[in-house]
Amino acid sequence: MNLTRRSFLAATAATAAATPAIHGAEKARKYRTVLIGTGWWGMNILRTAVEAGQSDVVAMCDVDQNQLDKAHAEIEKMTGAAPKKYRDYRDLLKEQKPDVAIVATPDHWHPLITIAACEAGAHVYVEKPISHTLLEGRAMVHAARAADRVVQVGTHRRVSPHNMWAIQFMKEGKLGKIGMIRAFVHSGGGPGKTTPDADVPAGLDWEFWCGPAPMRPFNPAIHPRGFRQFLDYANGTLGDWGIHWMDHITWWSDELAPKAVSSFGGRHIAEDSTDAPDTQVVQFDYESFTAVWEHRRYAANNAEKHPVGIYFYGTEGTMHIGWRNDGATFYPRSSNQEPVNVPPQLHKPDEQNIPELWADFLAAIKEKRRSVCDIEIGHRSTSLSLLGMLSLKLGRSIAWDGEKETCPGDAQANALLRRDYRKPWVYPEV
Question: Could you give the domains of the chain?
């Protein structure tokens, strides 16, 4: 089930061609919609779905009863209906048979729930990053294709106007030949402090929360919202933020994947309870260009113009694509030309473009086409972050065959493309 470079590019081109349908989604049909994972971001998506007018929210699921009850009360007030509550997504899928499932759990749960939802006949909107390990992502693509379901990944910058403008600008050759790319996130903070383990809060099924990942004592720094800096459940800043900016490389480039990846960094400043790197640099070597990722979770000060984003360096100038404060800016090579800026067009309060992405999701279902952030695209972009983490864990460079999705002749690296699940959960195989 490996994707060839040619077929990947064809699928990407078809998706791009369908993008104008984002704003033309039919508003007649109502989809039986469920939310699995009722935290902050899951509710952002569900609110958008309700406001779009094509969703009947029939059920909500979470292993944290307090979180579930709060989210349920909001939706009941918003819609006048009372969705059924579940603690186990398997019961929800079996009993409700939804048309649409929103998967907004912690990262380590995305694969199993997305696969189960596809097998139950649901179209899926799954948050990024799609998986914790690389081969989980391939299994998710396989499940979506086997069930002929639309699976949209929450990489919403694909429908953000300034991001779209910048990518199109470069695809038209206006930046010239691009030789280097630099993506980065520099956030504030410092050493932090240790958070002691604690008793599991009433209403939280901690064993189920850990699920297929290693079981460890409950710590308030993990749940809610802190899990992305714990490597048992996510892949740190590179896995969290990195996928958005790695996706710009996948989006722009005609090359399927890098041929080699090298990563270095560690915990140089952090003294808290997390275990993800606070400092990381990754180099991705492609045939025709080099890409670099860097992050630090400290020292995001006013000395740097852009704290987040991605630079493309070409023979005709430099393109910076940022977020809410800067949009996209083309800096021409010639000093006689003025920079060109396209400001961001984002939605309050989340400062993202979720409505556009949700509209495309519904349009893709109706039109029986791949969505603009299709699961294959999400898998390829997530894989870049995961390969960076793989190299960091090994402490050395790795070679990568993007078509076969393997590290040639490297048994040690290939072993880390997956992980053992905690029983009784079973790792998804293709």
Answer: 5-158+351-375 (3.40.50.720), 163-346+382-410 (3.30.360.10)
